[in-house]
Design brief:
348 residues; alpha/beta; 9-stranded mixed beta sheet
């Protein structure tokens, strides 16, 4: 009987250890020690982040090139791991060279058929042409297709190199995209950010959570805590493209999912985050986004006063425009100006 009670208690403790937690710490150092556990619990849902054995040569190939008024637009393919090629746009502003390296942005698209073409300004909605607009402001931009969108043919119904989720596959492709940007002579590798809308918005957060090289994140209509997503009806997160373990392991129960966005946002500290969370977004409830920011704020404040770290009011920005699931021009402008400050030389 005693053994049974001990086993039950041990199982309960293990389950509790794998639940999402409110962000809480007494010091920045204490919070930093919690980051590996946040990543571990994300991996319980997404699957394990690939190791260095998959970091093969990128073998970047330019397949098309066009000169626009303010930047050079190249269609490239790169190798994220053996046997795979990612189609992407690479936008390089005129006048940038190794002697004057620029800040760079990984630009991630929403759920649509044209994939990378929309952020690059070649299709889709004008309000989502953020890679084109950032390149015109002087940022080097890489715009990859998410697996199964645009030109990136990918079948999630067959075993895929050990990935448990499309989300983790995308994260790994994005990390390799950051490798590509960091290796360009035109890019200052210490000044790399990520931006995305909707699918791209949470994909940006997930990528930054696993890659400390991301100095600033802009997420547009990208998240709300799982209990706030359609009142906890989390089935929308569970397709093969995203995180099927939410269905198969956690039974579509928002309370059982081992990670959530408040701690993910806190886990970015002292890096910078700008969120466009519209009041009328029917996918990602603004009340939940505001709650996530409020919970993360207590941890983010612990980093105020550290050398080279901007005050939390500049690092953590939540915009709540009166519109639906979109990225309106005035909010984009403020996001771009914020990126210019956050990714300025020697800025944080």
């Amino acid at each position: 009987m005693l053994l049974l009670l001990l086993l039950v208690a041990s199982a309960a403790q293990a389950q509790d250890a794998d639940r999402a937690r409110p962000p809480r710490a007494e010091s920045a150092a204490e919070w930093r020690r919690q980051i590996p556990d946040i990543r571990r619990r994300m991996e319980l849902v997404m699957g394990t982040l690939p190791g260095p054995e998959r970091r093969v040569a990128l073998a970047v190939e330019t397949v098309a090139e066009e000169r626009t008024a303010r930047y050079l637009r190249r269609k490239v393919h790169y190798t994220p791991e053996p046997g795979d090629r990612v189609p992407a746009w690479l936008l390089v502003p005129h006048g940038i060279a190794a002697a004057t390296p620029a800040a760079a942005m990984l630009c991630l698209h929403q759920t649509n058929n044209v994939g990378k073409d929309e952020p690059a300004g070649l299709g889709g909605l004008p309000d989502l042409h953020y890679a084109h607009e950032l390149a015109e402001r002087g940022f080097v931009c890489l715009v990859p297709d998410y697996p199964s969108f645009g030109e990136y043919r990918h079948d999630f119904t067959t075993p895929d190199r050990g990935y448990a989720s499309g989300s983790m596959k995308a994260v790994w492709n994005n990390i390799r995209g950051i490798d590509l940007l960091a290796g360009l002579a035109e890019v200052d590798a210490a000044r790399i950010g990520v931006i995305g809308h909707s699918l791209g918005g949470h994909n940006a957060l997930f990528t930054a959570a696993f890659d400390d090289r991301v100095a600033a994140v802009v997420t547009s209509c990208g998240f709300t805590p799982f209990p706030d997503y359609y009142g906890g009806a989390v089935k929308g997160w569970t397709s093969d493209r995203y995180m099927p373990r939410i269905r198969d392991v956690y039974g579509l129960d928002a309370a059982r999912i081992p990670f959530d966005f408040p701690e993910l946002i806190a886990g970015l500290a002292p890096r910078a985050l700008f969120s466009n969370s519209p009041i009328g977004d029917d996918n990602f409830a603004v009340a939940g986004a505001a709650r996530a920011f409020a919970e993360a704020l207590t941890v983010q404040r612990l980093f105020d006063g550290e050398p080279g770290v901007a005050p939390v009011a500049e690092r953590l920005v939540l915009e709540t425009p009166t519109c639906g699931h979109t990225f309106p021009p005035e909010v984009r402008r403020r996001a771009y100006e914020w990126l210019e400050r956050r990714l300025a030389p020697a800025a944080r």
